[in-house]
Amino acid sequence: MSNQNVSSRPTGLQYFLYKSAKALKTPTPYLAFLGITLWLVTYYLLCEQWRIFPFYKVPGPLEVITEWINKDPIWGTSLFTEDYYINIWVSCRRIFIAFALATGLGVPLGLFMGWSQKFKDYAFPILELLRPIPILAWVPLAIVMFAGFETPIIYLATLASFFVTALNTMLGVESIDESYFRAAGCLGSKKHHIFLNVVVPGALPYIFTGLQISIGVAWFSLVAAEMISGDYGLGYMIMDSYMVNKYTTMVMAMLTLGFVGWITSAMVRSAGDRMMQWRERALGQGGA
User: Using alpha carbons only, what angle is made at residue 172 by residues 170 and 176, rounded to the nearest 5 degrees?
Assistant: First the structure.
């Protein structure tokens, strides 16, 4: 009976459709739509209808959308221009490289700090010493250390994302009940078996929570770096538009950044849900 239940569980696209249908039965998506609508109405009233201080210089939503979908844009950038997509692609490429590096370095470091008190005593003070330094303070050093535009920007995004990933992973390991380690030891498990079968799965919820925060931190660090030391990217697009008074293009780039950032966060969240289906099943069986 249990085997039939396991085999009948939705997987892949079926699982995605199942989760989507389940979400539509809750008030969450409708409240989100209502919140976005209220924000757009408020944005329109403040910037285009009432034009009150300090919003009267900010392009309103109708002005931005009109420029956004214009085949012959007044300010030179829209959905129909190549440079718009080049900037998006460059920023996304940098984010994926930085996020991959931060995950590849931060997750193992956090796992070992949470698992070994001796290792934590060596590594954690260094992490805590460097973590409070604002990312903008690293900009001059990154420019000195690395040549060109690309490497300093990726370095800064990786650095900011790395601290969040490592600390959340460490907290995930420390949150595991000590009884699991004792039970594994009593059953004769070796250290590497405990690490792979107890530490890693037990820390996964915290790891993916950290990764969702991490990719957001990577985005704002990346944009700040692109504003200061960049030739392409959404951050460069925002700063370049500001410098030449193309405020409509600037707001367009900011909104694009919000959409792309939301999509990447959703991708991380979806990967986490996919990898932790076992946890949902365990919770469901426990509740039953």
Answer: 120
Task: Please report, for the chain, the start and end positions of each structural domain, with discontinuous segments joined by +.
Answer: 1-58, 75-287
Predicted model pTM: 0.84
Q: Under a CB-based contact definition with an 8 Å cutoff, are residues 128 and 65 in contact? A: no
Q: What is the pLDDT of residues 183-219, one digit of tens each?
A: 888 877 888 888 888 888 889 989 999 999 999 999 9
Structure tokens at 68: 């956004």
pLDDT band for position 67 (cuts 50, 70, 90): very high
Written as six digits, the tokens of 24 are: 């539509």
Which alpha helices (DSSP H) does 136-177 contain, by range? Answer: 139-145, 150-174
Q: How many residues does the chain have?
A: 288
**Residue-averaged pLDDT of the chain:** 86
Please say whether the beta carbons of 60 and 180 come within 8 A: no
Q: How far apart are CA 269 and CA 213, in angstroms?
A: 10
Superfamily grouping for domain 75-287 = MetI-like (1.10.3720.10)
The answer to whether 75 touches 246, Cβ cutoff 8 Å, is yes
146 vs 129: CA distance, rounded Å = 23
Of 72, 58, 75, whose CA–CA distance to 249 is shortest? 75
